[in-house]
Amino acid sequence: MATTPWLGDACSLVDAFRSGERSPSEELEATLASIEASDLNSFSFVDAEGARQRARSADVSLPFGGVPLGVKELHPVDGWPHTDASLLFKDRRATYDTTMIARLKTRGGANPVGQTTASEFGGLNVSKTKLNGITGNPWDPARTAGGSSGGSAAAVAGGLLTIATGGDGGGSIRIPAGFNGLVGMKGTAGRIPRGPNLSIGNLTVNAGCLARSVRDVARWWDVCSGYDTRDPYSLPRIDGWEAGLDSSDLAGLRVAIVPTLGRATIRPELHEAVVSAGEALARDAGLRIVAVDVQVPALGFAWAVSGLVGTLAEVGDHWPGRKGDMTPAMAFGVEMATEAYNLRLAADVDIARTKANEAMAAAFDQADIIICATNPDAAYPAHIELNTRVGEVKVDLENNGTLTVPANIYGNPSIAVPVGLVDGLPVSMQIMGPHHSDALLFDLARVVERTLPWPLVAPGAPV
Predict the structure, then answer these.
(1) pTM for the whole structure
(2) Among 177, 198, 332, 447, which residue's Cβ finds the most Cβ atoms within 10 Å?
(3) Domains of the chain as residue ranges with CATH
């Protein structure tokens, strides 16, 4: 009988189920015990009895058959709490599954175990809310797990389960993946549908997962991607993501290694790590390094405000009477937006987005691949507020967003992969390609995975 959860990737866990080395029920019990014992605060809700029933009838012939699944608490699961990580909705329950969750259950055979913590309404790249408190990073529980998919990242890197859902509207998969030493992929916009009851907003949000290996993400694409009528922006289905791994012709592709993406302030040790890893990838994959002056314009105040339109719609009649129940940063943002947003500002948002799209297109005219850092630094202390300086790097949404938001604006795929440690904490680089180059990014990340392998879980996990 296993005493700890599986510490390999999800694909190898399925292999263990199929060979009889482990059973779904055995794995679930180890997972539940580890969640109960963990000090990471990465789960806000656990459906133990429901998960036990699903484990007993698991079909291990399916891609994720019997695999315990963590679900970001912003992704509705029928009958589970639907809080959006906010005190405003602490008693609300979901009445439907998202398309991604439904596909993971049916096509994938995964076993949802419970909800992982997130930032309130997914609005910040931190892991701290009034509803759930602080989620710790398994590499150092006093450090942030990032956000908004911080609980998913902490649970996977902390050895509690092998894979969990994530969402990325400005870096919310890639940022926590980077801080926790995981793989985090934001696919081409629309690759995985986000309905039903889709909130369109400013068209930057993508669905996906936090994973330990590239093949886990490719298998996720096989299960979850493809058009759905309730997301009119979703893309047609493509089969064979996992089967097609390592089949791209990489030799001779042009790569630009731009750690700061032209504007971010990043820690010197991280800059060095990204350059070194990028050059190693170019050598190992036969890429041709080119110089590209990437200049994505600052999106500034107008863009920050535009993202809060959807938040105000979600808060609804609770605003402004219950703003005291919201995290200070989100309450401040909504208040500022209600006062400042007007037709002129909406026009400024549209102008800024057009300029950002043109800048990204110009960069990809000159390079097939762009490599940059995922975060400006390793994980910072979990308790600090935004707009705080930690060493040489300021912790704020704008500086971090300089590295991750451009791919959300433009809609191109971007994958974050670990490239080493700084002060004993994981650091990460992003590999970005033009639209519909998801398979190419998988193969580039696989080269890094083979030549610069990363720990699948934090030291001492599960913690």
Answers:
(1) 0.97
(2) 177
(3) 10-451 (3.90.1300.10)
